[in-house]
């Protein structure tokens, strides 16, 4: 998961002092078994370098079968080229043929973690000071464990959903060039995961800067409705080169540097989607002040008007808001030259773009080339090529139950739709017609809780609240 932590500015927008409501008893039953599931999944190493998503999927399949799922309800998959990067699809059949299924999606692969860098063993789940610590304790094994636990509990309770519930646990989300299970399912097993919509990572609550166990407060619940597409590009210049004792202005590194300066100064045009319009219009009044007024004005003002331009200038001072309003591209890697006493024959850089929904990678490639305006600089898309990002609708049938339950679990906390400036596997489902939403529930801290970094953690109370919330939410969609 690419981090989607609310900025300090956004947390300030949402400040409130609600008390957390107690979850219904049915939502919290079976915690010891859930802890076992969570521990087993977290302690199964699923890094690309030395782990196995296939083993993790097999262990979760065993838990589902123990709960009563038949072999025919579970599909374990892996390809010969990537035997350790497999996953599973599990199905709890519904009673209605008219209702389309829903899909629960989570990835089980994790970012690399070196023992010598961590305070604690990253592949041993440790509970300490009100937090669980381990690689994947948050991203994304918390959600994966909850989805497995939810289906286990439904089966044990004899719950008969009206609409079929599908679960997909996949690999490859955390590594750009790895085999991606969600993409593979979307391209090769579309019927297996067919659903009216999918629930995924990307949403969740946020605190005011401290965990609830430390006296902090939950200040927002968000649902991710859409995300940007990630695409890398290679910018390259070439030159005959020569001896460094006879320099000339026609230099591959200088030419690339000039191109990067133009890219740095290029601002992609402002854009708004239904999601970002809802976000700014709902968040602005709570924020107040100059920024709050700008959040409201950017939605209310005609595009290109003086009021819109003034509002944009204010919003651009916040990194999160600036990124939410447009495509962004930034240089991230650099290489060039072949000897310290030779004029460079080649120079190149990687440019990482986060593309606003609705634009193709080739369209952005052309815009980059036009902004640079130098035919001597080649701009090429770097594989893998991601699908065009498609934002799902703000469908009341999907958003409504989330918001209603959020009001019960987190009374007084604003519930806000957001477009992620990062990326999830939801982009592959959206590309084949399955709208995907990042669900609310639980909470994280603005510092990111160590996701992708050292000492990743998940607050115990947040995990248990998220578990109860999602158990109730899936039932609300399927009764």
Report on this model:
Helices cover 35% and strands 22% of the residues. The protein is of the alpha+beta class and 479 residues long. It has three domains: 8-228 and 390-478, 3-Layer(aba) Sandwich (Aminopeptidase); 229-268 and 327-382, Alpha-Beta Plaits, CATH 3.30.70.360; 274-324, no CATH class. Strands 1-2-6-3-7-17 form a six-stranded mixed sheet. A four-stranded antiparallel sheet has the order 12-14-10-15. The protein has a three-stranded antiparallel sheet with strand order 4-5-18. A hairpin with a 2-residue loop joins strand 1 (74-79) and strand 2 (82-92). Helix 13 (396-409) packs across helix 15 (460-478).
What secondary-structure arrangement, pairings included, does this model have?
Layout: H1 8-14, H2 25-28, H3 31-42, H4 53-66, E1 74-79, E2 82-92, E3 102-107, E4 126-128, E5 131-133, H5 141-157, E6 165-170, H6 181-188, E7 197-200, E8 204-207, E9 218-227, E10 229-238, E11 242-243, H7 252-265, H8 274-287, H9 289-300, H10 306-315, H11 319-324, E12 328-336, E13 342-343, E14 346-355, H12 361-372, E15 378-382, H13 396-409, E16 415-420, H14 426-431, E17 436-438, E18 457-459, H15 460-478
Parallel strand pairs: 3-6, 3-7, 7-17, 9-16
Antiparallel strand pairs: 1-2, 2-6, 4-5, 5-18, 8-9, 10-14, 10-15, 11-13, 12-14
Helix pairs in contact: 1-8, 3-5, 5-15, 8-9, 9-10, 13-15
In total, the number of strands is: 18
Q: Give average pLDDT, whole number.
A: 95
* CATH fold label of the largest domain: Aminopeptidase
Distance between the termini: 30 Å
Q: Largest sheet, order of strands side by side?
A: 1-2-6-3-7-17
* Tally of separate domains: 3
Oligomer class: single chain
Please identify which CATH superfamily of the largest domain we are dealing with: Zn peptidases
Shape: globular
- Helix fraction bin: 25-40%
Based on secondary structure, the structural category is: alpha+beta
Q: Which radius of gyration do the C-alpha atoms yield?
A: 24 Å
């Amino acid at each position: 998961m690419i981090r989607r932590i609310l900025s300090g500015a956004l947390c300030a927008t949402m400040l409130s002092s609600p008390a957390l409501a107690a979850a219904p008893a049915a939502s919290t039953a079976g915690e010891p078994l859930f802890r076992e599931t969570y521990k087993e999944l977290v302690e199964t190493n699923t890094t690309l370098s030395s782990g196995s998503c296939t083993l993790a999927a097999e262990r979760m399949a065993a838990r589902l079968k123990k709960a009563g799922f038949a072999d025919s309800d579970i599909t374990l998959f892996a390809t010969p080229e990537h035997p350790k990067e497999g996953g599973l699809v599990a199905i709890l059949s519904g009673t209605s043929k008219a209702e389309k299924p829903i899909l629960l999606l989570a990835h089980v692969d994790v970012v690399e973690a070196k023992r010598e860098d961590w305070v604690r063993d990253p592949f041993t789940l440790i509970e300490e000071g009100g937090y669980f610590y381990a690689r994947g304790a948050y991203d994304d094994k918390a959600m994966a464990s909850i989805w497995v636990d939810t289906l286990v509990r439904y089966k044990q309770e004899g719950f008969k959903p009206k609409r079929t519930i599908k679960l997909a646990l996949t690999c490859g989300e955390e590594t750009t060039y790895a085999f991606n299970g969600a993409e593979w399912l979307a391209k090769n097993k579309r019927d297996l995961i067919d659903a009216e919509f999918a629930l995924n990572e990307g949403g969740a609550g946020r605190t005011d800067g401290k965990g609830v166990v430390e006296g902090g407060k939950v200040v927002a619940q968000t649902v991710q409705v859409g995300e940007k597409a990630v695409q890398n590009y290679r910018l390259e210049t070439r030159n005959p080169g020569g001896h460094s004792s006879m320099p000339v202005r026609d230099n591959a590194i200088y030419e690339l540097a000039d191109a990067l300066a133009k890219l740095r100064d290029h601002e992609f045009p402002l854009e708004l989607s239904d999601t970002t319009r809802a976000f700014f219009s709902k968040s602005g009044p709570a924020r107040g002040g100059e920024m709050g007024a700008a959040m409201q004005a950017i939605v209310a003002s005609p595009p290109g008007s003086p009021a819109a331009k003034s509002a944009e200038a204010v919003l651009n001072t916040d990194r999160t808001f600036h990124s939410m309003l447009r495509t962004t591209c930034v240089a991230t890697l650099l290489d060039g030259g072949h000897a310290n006493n030779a004029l460079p024959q080649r120079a190149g850089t990687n440019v990482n773009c986060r593309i606003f929904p609705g634009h193709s990678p080739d369209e952005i490639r052309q815009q980059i080339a036009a902004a640079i305006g130098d035919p001597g600089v080649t701009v090429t898309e770097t594989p893998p090529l991601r699908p065009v990002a498609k934002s799902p609708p703000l469908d009341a049938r999907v958003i409504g139950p989330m918001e209603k339950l959020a009001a019960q679990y987190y009374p007084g906390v604003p519930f806000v739709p957001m477009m992620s400036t990062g990326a999830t596997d939801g982009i592959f489902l959206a590309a084949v017609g399955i709208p995907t939403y990042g669900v609310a529930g639980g909470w994280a801290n603005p510092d990111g809780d160590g996701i992708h970094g050292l000492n990743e953690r998940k607050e115990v109370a947040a995990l248990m609240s998220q578990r109860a919330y999602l158990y109730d939410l899936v039932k609300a969609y399927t009764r």
